[in-house]
Sequence to fold (502 residues):
Amino acid sequence: MIATGGKRRAPRDSGGIVSADAYLAHDDISRRWANGTLRVTTRQDFQLHGVLKGDLKKSIAAINQALLTTLGGCGDVERNIMCCPEPKTDRFHEQAHLAIAAMVAALTPRTGAYHEIWLDGQVVDSSEPEAEPLYGEQYLPRKFKTTVALEGDNCVDIYAHDLALVAMRGDAGSVRGFNVLVGGGLGRTHNKPETFVAVAQPMAFVEPDQVVDVAHAVVAVQRDYGDRSNRKHARLKYTIADRGLDWFRGEVQARLPFALHAPEPLHWEPVDDHLGWHDQGDGKLYVGLYIENGRIADVGEVRSRAGLRRIVEEIRPQVRLTAQQNVILAGIAPAQRPRVEALLAEHGMARVESIPHAIRYAMACPAIPTCGLAVAEAERVIPSLIRQIASMLDELGLAGERISFRMSGCPNGCSRPYLGDVGFVGTTLGKYDVMLAGDFEGTRLNRVYAPNVPIGDIPSLLRPIFIEFRSNRRPGEGFGNWVERIGFDALREGLAATEAIA
Fold:
């Protein structure tokens, strides 16, 4: 598997932005050296699956020739920086992206080893040691993940990240500063309680011109104090759990020439997946396209790979990858909309309005057979499961509810199952922990409601719960919020009483 992040230039950019040429190059690479599909990840990356070892160097070189890169796709460094993918052209979005671009440049590894190994193979002969002002000789104790959200829009799941920055709106549509959150992370190991998931905690508020220095300082503190003796205890969430948020904030403050302000309250609107047609604000349109589990492929009547290639070749839109594994096509002239819609219909790509909510708001990681960490299926089994659930919700009159379903083939949680209304986390082949009481906005962790449930039993487990939800929720109350309010004990008691009456 090769992961390539977003739009990669010099320096590399953020937020899953891909030019038309770069998209077509990725499609060509997948045809030539991979399994013929492109996979959009929950981190706004492309993954290529099925690349043979002998073709690895050629495929990576081709990615770089297309002005993208795999640098930061793995390793103990800052990974690709995520950002809300909405292609608005107003002042707020433009200022936020300028700040992000500066941060990307500051946190990107400077090593020349990547080029020596994967590109030209030329070793630079120099008497001067290679400069890595941030990472030094040892790099970080573990991978480091950063995301940037825009006030009110948590489409990138900020609470799942080591470092999260929320651009706050100011006068005349400007960015007046950033809220800084630290210590999120969703990886854990089954039956090892010393490993755990955590949501990022608010740490500070900073001015727009201070955000790069703050990000640099946060990474540097983790570099110096993160656990290097145990990789399962090496993420920032453990550093903060062991030493405390106040200690961490003090260490960050000691590295800065300005004072950190107290974090401001955050308020989130219902999560917008940015699907469907929208006005960009510059006279052009963008359209968000649903890609089931991020797999761009030609399967049966849905030929998303051929359809996207036709549209990108003919219309030349900018392509943006979303944190929900979908694709946005931006910069479309209004006169081109009928042609885009015709090509989508021709290739069996459904209008988002026709997709049941349960399917639209479901995500799964690749899992078996392409992930060596997986202990269960995810991408290959959730289409059948989620359609059973969608049919059940329709039958119960709940088809219009926004309920998020997320499945992971192992406890590492790449599909962010711990932040959904309902999470399915693989425990062994064919069995899953069913987790409830998260929320649709992704601000709260869910918890194990039923362990080791065979996948065939999941619909029957959920059905009476949804019936109780339909009967006893408050007006406008979401499913995860309802479960959290009443609690697991009361839920089980209510189900037992209903069963006894029946």
User: Anything to note?
Assistant: The longest strand covers residues 175-182. Confidence is low (pLDDT under 50) at residues 6-12. Residues 479-501 form the longest helix (23 residues).
